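2024-03-11 09:14:02 DEBUG pipeline.ingest accepted 1 chain
2024-03-11 09:14:02 DEBUG pipeline.ingest length=463
2024-03-11 09:14:03 DEBUG pipeline.predict start
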Amino acid sequence: MIPPLPPSLAYGVPAPADHNALTHLLTQAFVAPPQAESSYIRNFGLDQFRVLRQGSQILGTLALIPMGQWYGGRRVPIVGVASVAIAPEHRSQGRGVALMEAALGEMQQQGTALSVLYPATQRLYGKVGYGPGGSRWGWTLATAGLRLGSPPLSVYPLDIPPNLPLSGLTAWEGNRVEPRSPQSPNGSALDNGSALDNGSALDTNPDLGLAIDPGATTLQTLQRLYQAYARHHNGPLDRAWGLWRSRLNPAQPKALYGYGLGTPSQPQGYVMFSQHRSPVPAQIAAQIAPQIAAQIAIEDWAYTSPEAGLSLWAFLGSMGSQIQGITWWGGAIDPLTLLLPELALQPHGYQRWFLRLVNLPAALTARGYPPGLAGELHLKVTDALLPANQGSWILTLDRGQGQVTPGGRGDVQIAIDSLASLYSGFLTAHQLQSLGQVTGSSQSLAWASQVFGGPAPWMPDLF
């Protein structure tokens, strides 16, 4: 059960006059330029932030960002928790736990299915029921390994909007769009807006789930290509508007280059990147000269056909005379790298994101499952903070969808933080058993692993 806040503390939405105080707090907490943190607040909207106050003093803050995340080919509504910061003089006093508990209470009231975050400290978030959900890997590739000849598809420049409004389209699935009007306030932090049909004739590829409106803007086309790509993986976000804005209009001034793959009327992918000079990782230094090398940093990409994937690599490889290296963030197992002629890439970074089931029935029902599986999984879940999740549950599978009812035998006994790792596919039930985090018969654990099986979960976004 979430304990109430002490009478001296208050949790709520910051006032417009708090913008500078939040900027100062985030700048110190994340060792970042003030203009970057101020831009971050504007990108997502002050109404998506929450503060913990004592009188007029702000002790801490966080952001609650409504988005979606793909699991089993279906979009699960989530709230991303970001910018969690406690003022230095109030740390080590339980303020961070109190702030997170208040936020989870709000999310539970709103019916949020899942919550996702990048933990600065695992101990804090483990206390409130978050567990490892997936990873984010940084990769570096020497362009010397990209000798692919001419791209199979045409490559054309994209007209990237230079100044996106502070609010706009947030998230969509298929032909349905959730809008935010640039002329109106953003609304509450957990309100995704109402679903609105585009009302236009769409060309749809049923195999990829790709829908492109012939009259779509560049941004709408990028969003639809990205969704067609992302939905076949576990973990990628259905991005909030603020994430799209930060990708296309970054706070740190830098030139962004965008190219489509295919034709404007029939796009099959895209790549967006910036260029810079920086030292290269020591493990690939022998392949790149000079040591301070010209590199491409891929900011975003998507491909919806093998030809688009090959065209992407061939296009980047054609810059090898000026560019010595390519960097990007992706998954531990990135299928696109299997199209490379040689495995000439090295990791340069790693981050792990955490997941929390806030509304267990909603989370289990929203997720997609292997369509060939049919039957029941009987769970017994412990969740001391959100007791509505606690107890025995039956997950019934039929044609890739799940239905949840209370009761059952409780064949698989698991805590809510460990269930996060099973839910996302980050760990199998037997792997969790080896860590002492789940109990059950060998048969029931094998069945649980099949139910939540699929590609290793990852996401390219940092929020």
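2024-03-11 09:14:41 DEBUG pipeline.report The chain is about 25% helix and 30% strand.
2024-03-11 09:14:41 DEBUG pipeline.predict end
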